[in-house]
Amino acid sequence: MKRLLSRPSRKASLRYLLIIPFVLQLSAAVGLTGYLTFLNGRESVSKLASQLRREMSSRIEAELENYLESPHQFNHINVASLAQGQFDIQNGSNALQLLRQVQLSPFVYASYCGNESGDYLGAYRSEENNTPYLGLAVSNSESNYFLTLYDIDNDGNRQALDRTVNPYDPRQRPWYSAAIEAKGATWGEVYLDFATGLPTITASEPVYNSENQLIGVCATDVVLLQDFRQFLANLSIGQTGKAFVMDRSGLLISSSTNEPITTGQGEDLKLIQAIDSSEPLIRETAQYLTNQFEDIAELTQPQQLDFTLNQERQFVQVLPLQNSRGLDWLIVLVVPESDFMAQIHAGARTTFWLCLLTLGATTLSGILIARWVSRPISQLGRASQMIAQGDLDHRVTLHGIEEIETLGQAFNQMAEQLRESFTALEQANYTLETRVEDRTAELKTAYAEISSLNERLQADNLRMGAELDVARQLQQMILPREQELNQISELDIAGFMEVATEVGGDYYDVIHRKDSVIIGIGDVTGHGLESGVLMIMVQTAIRALAAANDANPATFLNAVNQAIYQNAQRMSPGKNLTLALLDYRDEQLWLTGQHEEVLVVRASGSIERIDTIDLGFPIGMVDDITEFVSQVPIHLNLGDGIVLYTDGVIEAENHQRQLYGLERLIEVIQQNWQQAAIDIRHAIIADVQKHIGDRAVLDDITLVVVKKVEEMAIVN
């Protein structure tokens, strides 16, 4: 008993099995909770960032539209005044209305009008020695149409001459031609003013008289760098977010930073591209938009995008600013995700430490509980080992946990039952040994009988193998020989038969009579000895009847059927065969009997398929088939012929269970028909074997090729 109940190898402790899964599950739950909290916070940040980007871009759009609306309002007032002749534009002595507009709007650099006569009058602001001042600009016949600058008093009156600049014709200026082309209020392109070097945009509007004739154009220059840039800088765009405005060509018009937006000096001064900005966040955002869209002109709707810069996600809001006055800019807002995630990360760290503290406390309590639970179970384990070593009188006493006390009582009862069972088992072993000895003697007797039967079976197998070999040899012996086929002068005939087992059920024969040639082909149901014997019966009956020169197909075929009907029915489960006979005489074939389709091949290679279903009835199924038998004539010219086959040819399978098929057989015949019958047969059989490959042949394969040739001398 000690040998059978050996002590098992040491496995994992119950204490660890109680603690470790508990700790792992708790860790997973805490970690998952923290992770989901982090994801939820991040999702909230994404929503907040999306809302903030929309609100900020909308504020920028509203401010920019308000910023750029007053110039058109000034132009509208000036257009009305010029149309009513209230401007002293020819003499250029007073520009009070224009002066007030420049004084009211600090971002308006100049307000002016020009007429179709080439006169020009405007008020402008400038700066000298860091001291701002207002001036009057005039170009008319008095100044010989040179742009002349004057000091101006508070009432808009012209004062002392400041300087003369250069010839100036307002009609040749872009702001003048743009208003005429637009036929209404419009914005020009952003440019750098030659006097201030600041980015400037001009609002202009044409002036018409009551007869809709052009009088002139009024315009207002707006400096984009000053107040609007200060507005962008004052926006609270996270901690490090940036906002900027660029046109569709990518020029940086304004931004929330203090970076210079121009490059070069003097005549080479120009606005920089946004992708060339010295501010990395603006530069990379512009580059991202250029890469994301093949043409920035595609951005016609507000877009919320994001990209990664320095392994950190950046939130981007793009808002197209377009209006009927030709303005087409992009307002871009970019905010790093870290601006929103700082509090999330701080909360995550707090959550991590709280979870770690909870995990530690829970693990400690789990260890104490596991000890309390595992101690009595360990006592049970030691008691089990003692019982396994043969001490069936050992008992345990457990206290503290109700279920474990119950388990201890059950253990003691089990030990008592084991002691009783082992006593009964020893008695049963003695009885079993006695019965085994008796059964062994019986098995020896049975083994001797089986050995004798096996020897008899081997002898029977040898005898049956010999019988099958004799039957196969008999079957091969009665097939037509090549010498026999060569005796037929008008027909070139080649035949082939390969059986699926030792003895096949296919039949073919060629019988050369004095005035005709009889060709037969058939297929007995099944394989093996019975099928082979029936095939030999059929061959014998046909040759016997052919020798009697019975030329009536119906009588001939029915006689064959009657000759083998009784023997076929004696075979279980009743053998039968399909049989087709062809009688060739006087260049005419007479076909009778039911079998596979007969393929008539013309000298040109064309093939006619003759269905034999209505030409006969299976042989050996009924005793009289006269009423089912009929015949069809087939005329053969020189080079014509027929191909006969059994279903083993067209139903040959490859490893994919695909059939060889009649269409493939016809194709091979047509490709090789110009050759001799033996070569045609070789080509067909080679193609069938190629299709089968190394797969076992499942059915007998029989093929007969007959070809009408010129009559030649018989070779003996």
CATH homologous superfamily heading of the largest domain: PPM-type phosphatase domain
End-to-end C-alpha gap: 93 Å
Unreliable sequence segments: 1-8
User: Would you count the extended β strands for me?
Assistant: 26
Largest sheet: 9 strands, antiparallel
What is the overall pLDDT average?
81
Describe the protein's topology.
Layout: H1 14-67, H2 70-83, H3 96-104, E1 108-115, E2 120-128, E3 131-139, E4 146-152, E5 158-167, H4 174-182, E6 186-187, E7 191-192, E8 199-208, E9 214-223, H5 227-234, E10 242-247, E11 252-255, E12 262-263, E13 270-271, H6 280-292, E14 303-309, E15 312-322, E16 328-336, H7 338-388, H8 402-477, H9 482-486, E17 491-498, E18 506-512, E19 517-524, H10 529-547, H11 553-570, E20 577-585, E21 588-592, E22 598-601, E23 607-610, E24 631-635, E25 641-645, H12 647-650, H13 662-672, H14 677-692, E26 701-708
Antiparallel strand pairs: 1-2, 1-9, 2-3, 3-4, 4-5, 6-8, 7-8, 8-9, 10-11, 10-16, 12-13, 14-15, 15-16, 17-26, 18-19, 19-20, 20-21, 21-24, 22-23, 22-25, 25-26
Helix pairs in contact: 1-7, 7-8, 8-10, 10-11, 13-14
Describe the protein.
- The protein has 716 residues and is α+β, with helices and mostly antiparallel strands.
- The protein folds into 4 domains: 68-223, Beta-Lactamase, CATH 3.30.450.20; 227-341, Beta-Lactamase; 392-477; 479-708, Phosphatase 2c, domain 1 (4-Layer Sandwich).
- The chain contains 14 helices and 26 strands.
- The strands form 5 sheets. Strands 1, 2, 3, 4, 5, 6, 7, 8 and 9 form a 9-stranded antiparallel beta sheet that branches. A 5-stranded antiparallel beta sheet has the order 11-10-16-15-14, sandwiched between helices. Strands 17-26-25-22-23 form a 5-stranded antiparallel beta sheet.
- Helix 8 runs parallel beside helix 10 (529-547).
- It starts with 13 loop residues before the first helix and ends in an 8-residue tail after the last strand.
- The relative contact order is 0.06.
